Amino acid sequence: MKYYCIGIKGTGMSTLAQMLKDLGHDVYGYDDQKEEKFTQKGLEERKIPIFYDDSFSFDKDVIVTASKAFSEKHPEIQRARQSEAVFQNYNQVVGEITKQFRTIAVCGTHGKTTTTSLLKHLFTKFVPTSYFIGDGTGKIDQESHYLVLEADEFNRHFLAYSTAISIVTCIELEHTEIYRDIEDIITTFSTFLNQNTKEKVIAYGDDIHIRKIAFEKPVLFYGEGKENDYQVRNIQLNTTGSTFDLYHHDEKVGQFSVPLYGKHMVMNTAAAILAAKEEGLPIQEIQEALLSFQNAKRRFQETIVNGHIIIDDYAHHPTEIKVTLEAVRQKYPHKKLVVVFRPNTYSRTQAFHKEFAEALSIADKAYVTPILCDREDPNEYGNVTSEMILKDLKGGKLIDENSIEQLEEDQNAVVVFMGCATVSHLIEAYKALLS
Length: 435
Known about the structure:
Elements: E1 2-6, H1 11-22, E2 26-30, H2 41-45, E3 50-51, E4 62-66, H3 75-81, E5 86-87, H4 90-98, E6 102-107, H5 112-126, E7 129-133, E8 137-139, E9 146-150, E10 163-168, H6 182-196, E11 197-204, E12 219-223, E13 230-238, E14 241-248, E15 251-258, H7 263-278, H8 283-290, E16 301-305, E17 308-313, H9 318-331, E18 336-341, H10 346-360, E19 365-368, H11 387-390, E20 397-398, E21 413-418, H12 424-434
Parallel strand pairs: 1-2, 1-4, 2-3, 4-5, 6-9, 6-10, 7-9, 10-11, 11-12, 12-13, 17-21, 18-19, 18-21, 19-20
Antiparallel strand pairs: 7-8, 13-14, 14-15, 16-17
């Protein structure tokens, strides 16, 4: 088969393209952004051609799949529509892949990428495993029985997937351009967990929204609460990572340490441990494997430039910002904490501007960039701007690539750049300033 992936540098599309190539298909891609992105490494390793113009030749044997970040009005999509090529939705293509393996999926408003990365790390240590991770990392191992998969709720994508086991990390209001309210989200997750999941669910039992689901499949609850099947106890958060005990009711499963920061990361780790344990991976070897875990791209990714600590993180929801900044405090308790946040949609800014301000106020100093959105029309959102966040953020300042010198005021600081829209230009401008 021949696939043409429009928006191939997007995190999900890049991952899918790599997996299609590993399955033996001919894969090509298109993107508007010519500059290097962190999602390109796997594409380049597989020598997948990327087009930036209209020179790709369509025929009836080409299957086109396009990122939802690209409007139907985009010239390349219009050109493909007018050809003999066949269109398939991105999530339908992923869904067909999930049917070929024993798939373990991770869904949830937050924590999907890290939990899937933990599963990939644990399973590949012991058995051939394919994986789909939402940081632009994907691989099909032709010898594998397992596929570990990040199952995204955006645009209800995961309703096309078929899984043996599903992990649900949390449910919260998100993607307000897609979902009507929290009840709409709960209903959609319920459909995925009950209808798309064939065997069992592993669920974070301390989440009030998850507890509203009437599970039709066997479910294992984990969390700190005593009502959970597996309890996380004796959490220790320090500058080198996190340690905790895991109990099955009152029987100790073991003590686990992981080089991750924040209580939310402890819960993600517990979920991955349970999935591995359920599939027969030995506890002692799980304990040892966790010590060498390295998180996904753009998840608490640290760089030091001339003694200055820079962290690049994908956080783009108020809850994610809050727990990530708390994690930075855990690792660097004696340093000034500065955050630079790039909002990426008008709808999310409109829905959560007060919550964004509250979360960002955890930092000693907060900067916010103009909104950078490639899938929403600003004309449809009136006066929605970053100023909505700044007016509730005491001492907050507007910043962009041309005013990055404001960060020179912040000495002995950890500077955290956040957002799912690219912040690489901001980071590079800051590095140039430090050099």
